[in-house]
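Exercise: predict the structure of this protein bound to zinc ion.
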Amino acid sequence: MDASLSAALRKMPKAELHIHIEGSLEPELIFALARRNGITLDYSSVEALRGAYAFTDLQSFLDIYYAGASVLLTEQDFYDMTRAYLERAHADNIRHAELFFDPQTHTERGVAFATAINGIHRALQDARLKWGMTGALIMCFLRHLSEEEAFATLELALPYRDKFIGVGLDSSERGHPPEKFSRVFARCKELGLRLVAHAGEEGPPAYIKTALDVLHVERIDHGVRCLEDEELTQRLVRDKIPLTVCPLSNLKLRVFDEMHDHNLLQLLNAGLVATVNSDDPAYFGGYLNDNFIAAFDALPLERRHAQQLARNSFAAAFLDASTKQKYMDEVDAFFAN
Ligand code: ADE
Ligand code: ZN
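Solution:
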């Protein structure tokens, strides 16, 4: 890739819409928080922990990811984790970030819902004050747990309704189809929450369909397997349903064997509102700009695709129309030079 394209990718204004905040915990911070909280880890050093990051599929990653999150105990821990991510995001010229968090990973360990959400929310507020970065929080239900447990989590969350904008669905996809959560998503819709779900990462295109038909989600997280179903692809194009694609994640979790096999360009060529995101940057080898660089290095993507992806990131964001337009104008002004 020529130097001017890689500079444009780094500097262009952009939004990130698919980042699990617990997936931004770097091994160094895991060790620092473990020390601060008197927790003994199963790994002897930062290097040993990083050495264990050799995943064969989604589940092999999730096992290590949930273990890493176990060092988070206090509100300050959640603040420090989020603050570290937002500093990286700011360095990557992210203007708007929508963060996922997994409350059940914490409440199951006896950490209060308030502890997690207040720490994350305070860091988002500080980023707005310091850099003018806009941000929002989406709470995900763990799909390997029951719908009843999701309902219980929603009850815990409702006193903090002003601190999150929506709900998502993550964790082990295969064997846990979206329709398992039809009632809790219906309730969230009634409550006016924004709705998203992971679908079509490892799971089949049918899960994308049921996420739309049964859960009524507004965006699909990943969704890369939609191209296996022509009719579904046409529907996603027609209804402008955004896909939050995560190239380095797909590589590390073996959704694609090599980056040059990734279908990001086909998704764009099909007319889909595809976006680029980091998913779990501490585990997958890079933050948002690293994802752009890796994809553009391996695929015949050009400057016009960079502009399209930056525009898509704001088009797909849960922002009001005038803020979206302001950000998209910034993108167009950036590429006009
Ligand atoms: N939780 C964190 N990252 C995830 C991913 N890529 N898929 C499903 N659940 C996740
Ligand atoms: Zn994800």
